[in-house]
Specification:
It contains eleven helices and 20 strands. By secondary structure, it is an alpha+beta fold.
Length: 418
């Protein structure tokens, strides 16, 4: 392999998603020379959930970016309700009960959020973002990672750094190269994402529907509903063979209020398949290398918490490694410092994944087996009897078991006149 254009940074981050750009921005504001490598030419891709949780909105406040974010087109989810029959619903999560400045989940196209973070990063002298740079491998010397190899429009090259951070998702190239041990959990369903254009107002709540062996979650957006349809794993070919008319019929049967709009779903090409995985690394680092976000723990789409956890991983990582990096304490690979990241973030990962597994077993799997057309009765009775529990659920979804705050070195005031 011919190597060209070698350069150096204190930290090189593989992947320009939410975790990668948050981490890059925070480290750069601490004065750590940071390079983010993103394999795509832009951020205009289908990110499905596109959720920005209350805790992340607080982080944008701390970063001095909330006003710019708030100006982006977005919708707000204030409650999550479950149907109980005869058109009645029970509010399972009420974000209005949260003691935060922004008590809702903002639904915004993720490319807008990533463009915002990238622009903020470019304002920092220590920040570099390289688009169309795909990480292909990890450079090792003396038992530690010292950089990465990548492909770009200019050819194959490498960049050396004191630390390599994998933020390149559940199919992480860096994670695979590091050969880190992983614990996998069985998941019996996959998800298919599509949008149904509608002019009707659907409110500011998440709308889960289940029945007849189907589960659909409708997310209100500006001018359309974003729909996640859950089905048995391994049935993507079968779903596509049934065709678009059959899918439209499934949508209408569970969400009859979309009957007049479901024709806007043009073809099966508009339906994106997600192979649902649930796993976590039992070790997140090697000397000179760290995995966070989906590269460290692939989450189920249930609860839409994957992005929130990934961003919190990034904030905790920046707080724990910035000073040691500036002090030159990574000459030996920084294993002691990197181990602290996993210790800090393992508890929320385990708790959320445990909750997701319970929801899979008690709610999703029975619904897909057509054993039930409604949530467990005991759960509904409990929430109706103790409405404050909707605030507990909102905290787990919107904030998480161990929330992180932006460290002082990265905080900024909102621009004057914003």
């Amino acid at each position: 392999m011919v190597m060209t254009g070698q350069s150096d940074a204190s930290v090189v981050i593989a992947g320009g998603g939410p975790a990668g750009l948050f981490l890059g921005l925070l480290l750069a504001r601490a004065g750590v020379r940071t390079t983010v490598l993103e394999k795509h030419a832009d951020f205009l891709r289908d990110f499905r959930g596109d959720t920005v949780h209350p805790s992340t909105l607080t982080m944008l406040d701390d970063l001095g970016l909330f006003d710019r974010f708030d100006a982006l087109p977005h919708s707000k989810i204030r409650t999550v309700s479950l149907p109980v029959g005869d058109g009645a619903e029970v509010t399972m999560a009420d974000f209005g009960r949260l003691p935060v400045a922004h008590p809702y989940i903002a639904m915004v196209p993720q490319w807008d959020l990533l463009d915002l973070l990238a622009d903020a990063g470019r304002a920092e002298p220590a920040f570099t973002l390289r688009m169309r740079h795909e990480v292909t491998g990890v450079i090792r010397e003396g038992g530690r990672a010292v950089g990465v190899r990548y492909e770009s429009p200019d050819g194959a090259a490498e960049i050396r750094a004191d630390l390599v951070v994998a933020c390149d998702g559940r199919s992480s190239t860096v994670r695979a190269a590091a050969k880190l041990p992983v614990k996998r959990f069985a998941v019996d369903f996959d998800a298919w994402w599509f949008r149904v254009t509608t002019t009707r107002f659907v409110g500011e709540q998440l709308i889960p529907r289940l029945g007849g062996g189907h589960v659909m979650i409708c997310i209100p957006r500006s001018g359309y509903l974003q729909v996640a349809s859950l089905g048995p794993k391994g049935t993507d070919a079968e779903l596509r063979a049934r065709g678009i008319d059959a899918l439209r019929a499934d949508v209408t049967s569970l969400v009859p209020e979309l009957e007049a709009d479901v024709h806007n779903l043009d073809s099966m090409d508009d339906v994106k398949h997600l192979d649902v995985k649930l796993d976590r690394l039992t070790r997140w680092h090697r000397p000179g290398l760290l995995c966070i976000g989906d590269a460290a723990h692939a989450m189920s789409p249930v609860g839409g918490v994957g992005i929130n956890l990934a961003v919190q991983d990034a904030v905790a990582t920046a707080r724990l490694i910035a000073t040691p990096l500036l002090r030159g304490e990574f000459a030996d690979g920084g294993s002691r410092v990197l181990a602290r990241v996993r210790r800090r973030r393992l508890l929320p990962t385990v708790l959320i994944q445990g909750l997701q597994r319970v929801l899979h077993r008690r709610l999703i799997d029975p619904a897909l087996d057509a054993r039930t057309a409604r949530p467990p009765r005991a759960l509904l009775v409990l929430v109706r009897t103790v409405p404050a529990l909707s605030g507990v659920a909102a905290r787990l979804i919107g904030i998480g078991p161990r929330p992180e705050r932006v460290p002082a070195f990265a905080r900024r005031s909102q621009p004057s006149g914003s």
